[in-house]
């Protein structure tokens, strides 16, 4: 339905504007501009939609620039134009005329009779659109292995064009057609086109899922709450003939009362099944009992961060004196499935040795068990986990530390501190012995930098920072021995 | 769809229908990607209505109605003699997609009886959601019922795929849980709700997806002796403390094969209706639980008038309110004026003076509002204080059920 330009006759008396049938927004806009520019008040304009034998004068009114209308008015126009009421254009023009004649805030006065009536028309269109989006039913058909979906719908107003984008957004990957008595819309996976009206008979036959849908509809109904009035208020009968499930309604209502009475009057029967005490008991005790069992859970769980090919589990003996908690596995760790084996891990291992800590005797793990990364070309770029993601993984870390039961936990870097405290604490401030309150002194705490931080420093600063890191590890080692003492 | 499958669908839809939640709202607007399927609109869509007046928005089914729990109010309790069935993960995925493609539904609301263990069950539920999102690019709405007894990390994953997570409180007091739902534990329910609430808040701050349409819950009305006031206080607490989006009130309804411990009767539908209205006042009308208590008698809301009117009748000294002058908060207290009408009044009176007839164009409940309003051409005079005002405004006993 293309916007037909308004043709407006010359001369005194009544000017008749003929617009295209349906929702001719472009035509109305062009006409309103010209009429307003020519100073024609609403009383001197008659509107017709559909070219019903009206004669025109020889000269059309001159083209006119866009009208400067308040937002509320500009927004209202396209929402009312699809209405079937023949007076819609006259009412809209009356509103525009009054707004242009000094009542700039008219649209805000919802109690004004014209604004009120247009508001109701807008509401009717919104409801019609909503019901079309809700109650339209597609039927599937198949030709040469390609599936196609077709619907027949009878809207109250001229809303096919306004309704179509919803279906494009939702069913972009499907091929579908919507047929109505006023026109049809077709989507082929890339283009939306509009065509001539269709007929109900154009619908393909037999979609096996309609019976299944009706079965669902019948079963989801609760006979003890029967209230057909409430149903009819939202789903008036006029929609029923195009909705396959509504065939079930009369029988559902008829049977509701006896069904409910039967439920209420029935004596409770003894349970037929044995009381599965053992199953219930086992069920309450689902939590992993060993570090191995916990690791099995972690290993089979899907990543909770984007990226990751496998979970990287903690490594080291249960009962280790010191547990190290890092941020998350990196590229190498993700490939090999072991913690602290990449460049930062190698640096840590070296520093531990210098500080007199045996790696094999310590427990090493990460706050986040999966490598979060973004793929750029062939490179996998490390992404820092954010607080919520660290929380996702905290449960596992907590259980892990329960099983390992170290005397001392060393947090490497800010993410580890966040995981262990639940709060963002700057490493520079927390560095050194630290109490992780969440754990009620089940182990002592110590905070230092993450070894990857050392790798990123400029060469001249590296040496000093590395020495400080080794120094931290020495203090941690001493602390660990002291606690064993 | 073959007959066996349809039979299973009947059993597992029947078993799921006592959960009142149907909303498909609250998810951020999103459209489908190139090869995917589905969208969410923000406001949600009701695709059909059944003769009980309730909307069908989501495919609401159980994965299985086998259950180890024995909650007296539940049709699926282990001691019930109902027929049992179980879907596979793949069956639920396929059913959701096929219904969705025909525009029957907005998405899936999946729940389950507890089989084998809470963890096992929760893993199955999450697998359905993961498969829909990952394998099929499904962008429609997913509501997952969360099993509070399951390990906490399973909830962490569920929220990545679901639009909404919910855990049903069902019974508002520990004593009732003890009596009617012996396997349930109030502490684990509260803990899981708090966990979800925390994660939702974090994700929102970080602009990540985690149950973006929030969490909701359901309480059963009329299975125990809890008063309306206590229910509303419980809801207000949940709205405030764990950032709950919705509380659903479900009038305890007869079920096939009821339990001897909980005799069946007609559901208290009018009471349920009043609770929803009071809940609405808390969420959108700046009413406090104390206001709701003040509108009640012995903790119970009146059935013949709505809670806002009940409050106004007990606080007549605060009325009438001048529609051309009163502030928004006070206008919201006027019976018969909805939030929308109040917004329109406030906008319109900047440019004009409102008469009663004008107000009549802004609300459809002028009859209820009149005794409490002053307009340019109207004053209720002694009407506000008349003794028979309640009787004049009370609704005739409504036929809300068959009984």
Characterization of this structure:
The complex is a heterodimer of chains A (485) and B (403). The longest helix of chain A is centred in the last third of the chain and has 26 residues, at 459-484. In chain A, the strands form 4 sheets. Chain A has a 5-stranded mixed sheet with strand order 3-4-5-6-7, covered by helices on one side. A 5-stranded mixed sheet of chain A has the order 9-8-12-14-13, sandwiched between helices. In chain A, strands 1-2 form a two-stranded parallel sheet. Chain A is of the alpha/beta class and 485 residues long. Chain A is elongated. Residues 1-10 and 52-59 of chain A have low confidence and may be disordered. Chain A has 4 domains: 15-130, no CATH class; 136-202, no CATH class; 208-276, no CATH class; 294-484, Uracil-DNA glycosylase-like domain (Uracil-DNA Glycosylase, subunit E, 3-Layer(aba) Sandwich). In chain A, helix 3 (88-100) packs across helix 4 (113-135), helix 10 packs antiparallel against helix 13 and helix 13 crosses helix 14 (414-421). Helices cover 42% and strands 13% of the residues of chain A. Chain B is an alpha/beta fold. In chain B, helix 2 packs across helix 3 (118-135). Chain B is globular, with a radius of gyration of 23 Å. Chain B has a 6-stranded parallel sheet with strand order 3-4-5-6-7-8. Chain B has a two-stranded antiparallel ribbon with strand order 1-2. Chain B has a two-stranded parallel sheet with strand order 9-10. Chain B contains 15 helices and 10 strands. Chain B folds into 2 domains: 3-217, Alpha-Beta Barrel (TIM Barrel), CATH 3.20.20; 307-393, no CATH class. In chain B, 55% of the residues are buried. In chain B, a hairpin with a 5-residue loop joins strand 1 (48-49) and strand 2 (55-56). Classes of the chains: A alpha/beta (485), B alpha/beta (403). Chains A and B meet through helix 4, helix 5, helix 6, helix 7 and helix 8 of A and helix 1, strand 1, strand 2, strand 3 and helix 2 of B.
